[in-house]
Write a structure and sequence with these properties.
By secondary structure, the protein is mainly α. The protein has a single domain, classed as AhpD-like. The protein is 57% helix and 0% strand. The chain has eight helices and no strands. Helix 6 crosses helix 8. The longest helix is centred in the last third of the chain and has 23 residues. This is Carboxymuconolactone decarboxylase family protein.
Length: 171
């Protein structure tokens, strides 16, 4: 029997071959990558790490960014998040009892900011979130949601490959 790691392609085990990245944008646009890393670090300041990872996972689910789902699920687990809450994220409206009111407000805002094609961020979503966050923290949350959406677009467009990230690797 042939064994394989996630970096090898093995057709005898039934898994599809790993797709190679389209473009190593970080190496080709290093100033942009470094600016994104700084922006990400600035956006996370003052936010609870577990809440931040839930927001990043939810936006990444919506945007179907496999590399970000891999990274932020692993970072959430490393931060003490439960597998159950991560699994339930894609259906949080059906299982709100897994989350606090504050987390639910953040998830609702995440969806509204991520899916702008549905229209503007509704006043009621913004107001509901504002009840759970101080203004400065709300500004950080909006920044974090915006930054993960930017990362998702780089990941999806350049087809970054999931499965190789180690928790805290980019911390």
């Amino acid at each position: 029997m042939t064994t394989t790691t996630t970096t090898e392609t093995n057709t005898t085990d039934g898994y599809a071959p790993e797709q190679p990245p389209r473009l190593d944008w970080a190496a080709l646009a290093p100033d942009v990558f470094k600016a994104m890393v700084r922006l990400d670090a600035a956006a996370r300041k003052g936010l609870d790490p577990r809440l931040l990872e839930l927001v990043k996972i939810r936006a990444s689910q919506i945007n179907q960014c496999a590399i970000c789902l891999d990274m932020h699920s692993k970072d959430a687990l490393a931060a003490g998040e439960s597998v159950e809450r991560i699994i339930q994220l894609s259906a949080w409206r059906e299982s709100p009892h897994f989350y606090t009111e504050r987390e639910l407000a953040a998830l609702e805002l995440t969806e509204a900011v991520t899916v702008l094609t549905d229209g503007f961020v509704p006043d009621e979503v913004y107001e509901r979130t504002a009840k759970h966050f101080e203004e400065a923290e709300l500004a950080q949350l909006i920044a974090a949601i915006t930054v993960i959406n930017a990362w998702n677009r780089f990941g999806v467009t350049c087809r970054r490959t999931p499965g190789h990230y180690q928790p805290g690797q980019h911390a």
